[in-house]
Amino acid sequence: MGAGKTTAGRQLAAELAKTFHDTDHEIERRTGVRISLIFEIEGEAGFRAREKQLVDQLTQLANVVLATGGGAVLDADNRRHLAERGVVVYLHGQPKDLWHRTRHDRWRPLLQDTDPLEKLRSLYQQRDPLYREIADIVIDTGRQSARALLHQLLPQLRERCKLSA
Question: Which of 35, 47, 107 is nearest to 72 (CA)?
Fold first, then answer.
Protein backbone atom coordinates (compact mmCIF):
# COMPACT_ATOMS: atom_id res chain seq x y z
CA MET A 1 0.00 0.00 0.00
CA GLY A 2 1.59 3.21 -1.17
CA ALA A 3 4.62 1.58 -2.79
CA GLY A 4 3.79 3.08 -6.19
CA LYS A 5 2.39 0.02 -7.96
CA THR A 6 -0.20 1.92 -9.97
CA THR A 7 1.99 4.85 -10.96
CA ALA A 8 5.03 2.72 -11.81
CA GLY A 9 2.83 0.11 -13.50
CA ARG A 10 1.25 2.69 -15.80
CA GLN A 11 4.64 4.08 -16.74
CA LEU A 12 6.10 0.62 -17.26
CA ALA A 13 3.21 -0.41 -19.50
CA ALA A 14 3.63 2.74 -21.59
CA GLU A 15 7.39 2.17 -21.87
CA LEU A 16 6.92 -1.46 -22.96
CA ALA A 17 3.83 -0.82 -25.14
CA LYS A 18 1.70 -3.15 -23.04
CA THR A 19 -1.80 -2.80 -21.63
CA PHE A 20 -1.99 -1.72 -18.01
CA HIS A 21 -4.45 -3.20 -15.52
CA ASP A 22 -4.88 -2.35 -11.86
CA THR A 23 -6.97 -4.83 -9.89
CA ASP A 24 -8.29 -2.23 -7.44
CA HIS A 25 -9.36 0.14 -10.22
CA GLU A 26 -10.89 -2.72 -12.18
CA ILE A 27 -12.94 -3.86 -9.17
CA GLU A 28 -14.19 -0.29 -8.73
CA ARG A 29 -15.01 -0.03 -12.45
CA ARG A 30 -16.90 -3.33 -12.48
CA THR A 31 -18.86 -2.68 -9.28
CA GLY A 32 -19.38 1.04 -9.76
CA VAL A 33 -18.36 1.76 -6.16
CA ARG A 34 -15.16 2.54 -4.26
CA ILE A 35 -13.27 -0.24 -2.55
CA SER A 36 -13.94 1.39 0.81
CA LEU A 37 -17.69 0.82 0.26
CA ILE A 38 -17.08 -2.82 -0.70
CA PHE A 39 -15.15 -3.25 2.56
CA GLU A 40 -17.99 -1.56 4.45
CA ILE A 41 -20.72 -3.75 2.93
CA GLU A 42 -18.97 -7.07 2.24
CA GLY A 43 -15.98 -6.84 4.57
CA GLU A 44 -12.44 -7.68 3.63
CA ALA A 45 -13.44 -11.28 2.80
CA GLY A 46 -15.92 -10.09 0.15
CA PHE A 47 -13.36 -7.79 -1.37
CA ARG A 48 -10.68 -10.52 -1.39
CA ALA A 49 -13.05 -12.91 -3.20
CA ARG A 50 -13.57 -10.32 -5.95
CA GLU A 51 -9.85 -9.68 -6.09
CA LYS A 52 -9.03 -13.40 -6.37
CA GLN A 53 -11.37 -13.86 -9.34
CA LEU A 54 -9.89 -10.83 -11.07
CA VAL A 55 -6.26 -11.86 -10.48
CA ASP A 56 -7.04 -15.21 -12.06
CA GLN A 57 -8.62 -13.53 -15.10
CA LEU A 58 -6.01 -10.83 -15.61
CA THR A 59 -2.99 -13.10 -15.19
CA GLN A 60 -4.25 -15.14 -18.14
CA LEU A 61 -3.95 -12.15 -20.49
CA ALA A 62 -0.89 -11.61 -22.67
CA ASN A 63 1.14 -8.42 -22.99
CA VAL A 64 -0.06 -6.77 -19.82
CA VAL A 65 1.40 -5.03 -16.82
CA LEU A 66 -0.70 -5.81 -13.77
CA ALA A 67 -0.73 -3.86 -10.52
CA THR A 68 -2.42 -5.78 -7.74
CA GLY A 69 -3.77 -4.49 -4.49
CA GLY A 70 -1.31 -4.77 -1.63
CA GLY A 71 -3.11 -7.72 -0.03
CA ALA A 72 -3.47 -9.85 -3.16
CA VAL A 73 -0.49 -11.94 -2.04
CA LEU A 74 -2.40 -13.14 1.02
CA ASP A 75 -4.19 -15.71 -1.14
CA ALA A 76 -2.16 -18.78 -2.12
CA ASP A 77 -3.94 -19.10 -5.50
CA ASN A 78 -3.14 -15.46 -6.30
CA ARG A 79 0.53 -16.04 -5.45
CA ARG A 80 0.59 -19.15 -7.64
CA HIS A 81 -1.11 -17.41 -10.59
CA LEU A 82 1.16 -14.40 -10.37
CA ALA A 83 4.33 -16.48 -10.09
CA GLU A 84 3.42 -18.99 -12.82
CA ARG A 85 1.94 -16.58 -15.33
CA GLY A 86 4.30 -13.64 -15.31
CA VAL A 87 7.31 -11.86 -13.92
CA VAL A 88 6.60 -10.57 -10.42
CA VAL A 89 8.12 -7.28 -9.35
CA TYR A 90 7.92 -6.49 -5.65
CA LEU A 91 8.07 -2.77 -4.98
CA HIS A 92 9.42 -2.95 -1.46
CA GLY A 93 8.84 -0.04 0.87
CA GLN A 94 9.50 0.41 4.56
CA PRO A 95 6.36 1.02 6.66
CA LYS A 96 7.45 4.55 7.60
CA ASP A 97 7.91 5.52 3.92
CA LEU A 98 4.56 3.93 3.02
CA TRP A 99 2.89 5.82 5.86
CA HIS A 100 4.45 9.05 4.61
CA ARG A 101 2.91 8.45 1.15
CA THR A 102 -0.53 7.34 2.37
CA ARG A 103 -1.07 9.44 5.50
CA HIS A 104 -3.57 11.82 3.85
CA ASP A 105 -5.44 9.15 1.86
CA ARG A 106 -8.92 8.58 3.30
CA TRP A 107 -9.88 5.93 0.70
CA ARG A 108 -7.71 3.09 2.01
CA PRO A 109 -9.98 1.04 4.28
CA LEU A 110 -7.21 -0.84 6.05
CA LEU A 111 -5.61 2.44 7.12
CA GLN A 112 -8.74 3.85 8.75
CA ASP A 113 -7.22 2.84 12.05
CA THR A 114 -6.27 4.70 15.22
CA ASP A 115 -2.58 4.09 14.43
CA PRO A 116 -2.07 3.79 10.64
CA LEU A 117 1.72 3.51 10.97
CA GLU A 118 1.39 0.55 13.32
CA LYS A 119 -1.17 -0.98 10.93
CA LEU A 120 1.35 -0.62 8.08
CA ARG A 121 4.03 -2.27 10.22
CA SER A 122 1.68 -5.17 10.94
CA LEU A 123 0.73 -5.55 7.26
CA TYR A 124 4.41 -5.42 6.33
CA GLN A 125 5.32 -8.23 8.72
CA GLN A 126 2.53 -10.36 7.30
CA ARG A 127 2.99 -9.57 3.60
CA ASP A 128 6.73 -9.03 3.06
CA PRO A 129 7.62 -12.76 3.25
CA LEU A 130 4.79 -13.57 0.81
CA TYR A 131 5.96 -10.96 -1.69
CA ARG A 132 9.52 -12.24 -1.43
CA GLU A 133 8.31 -15.82 -1.93
CA ILE A 134 7.08 -15.05 -5.45
CA ALA A 135 9.14 -12.02 -6.50
CA ASP A 136 11.42 -12.34 -9.49
CA ILE A 137 12.69 -8.80 -8.95
CA VAL A 138 12.71 -6.75 -5.74
CA ILE A 139 13.05 -2.97 -6.02
CA ASP A 140 13.43 -0.87 -2.90
CA THR A 141 11.22 2.15 -3.44
CA GLY A 142 12.55 4.32 -0.63
CA ARG A 143 11.49 7.88 -1.35
CA GLN A 144 12.41 7.90 -5.02
CA SER A 145 10.06 9.10 -7.73
CA ALA A 146 8.16 6.67 -9.93
CA ARG A 147 10.36 7.74 -12.84
CA ALA A 148 13.56 6.94 -10.93
CA LEU A 149 12.05 3.62 -9.87
CA LEU A 150 11.28 2.83 -13.51
CA HIS A 151 14.86 3.59 -14.56
CA GLN A 152 16.05 1.17 -11.89
CA LEU A 153 13.54 -1.52 -12.86
CA LEU A 154 13.75 -1.49 -16.67
CA PRO A 155 17.28 -2.90 -17.03
CA GLN A 156 16.49 -5.76 -14.64
CA LEU A 157 13.22 -6.50 -16.38
CA ARG A 158 14.78 -6.37 -19.83
CA GLU A 159 17.51 -8.77 -18.73
CA ARG A 160 15.07 -11.16 -17.09
CA CYS A 161 12.60 -11.14 -19.99
CA LYS A 162 15.07 -10.60 -22.81
CA LEU A 163 13.15 -7.50 -23.86
CA SER A 164 14.58 -5.10 -26.41
CA ALA A 165 15.50 -1.60 -25.27
Answer: 47
The answer to whether 80 and 133 have CB atoms below 8 angstroms apart is no
> What is the C-alpha separation between 162 and 81, in angstroms, rounded?
21
Residues 106-141 pLDDT 10s: 655 555 666 777 877 888 899 999 999 999 999 888
Task: Collect all residues with Cβ–Cβ distance below 8 Å to 88 and sequence separation of at least 6.
Answer: 82, 134, 135, 136, 137
CA distances 100 to 20, 94, 103, Å, are 26, 10, 6
Domain 5-159 = CATH 3.90.226.10: no
Domain boundaries, given as residue ranges, for the chain? 5-159
pTM for this one?
0.83
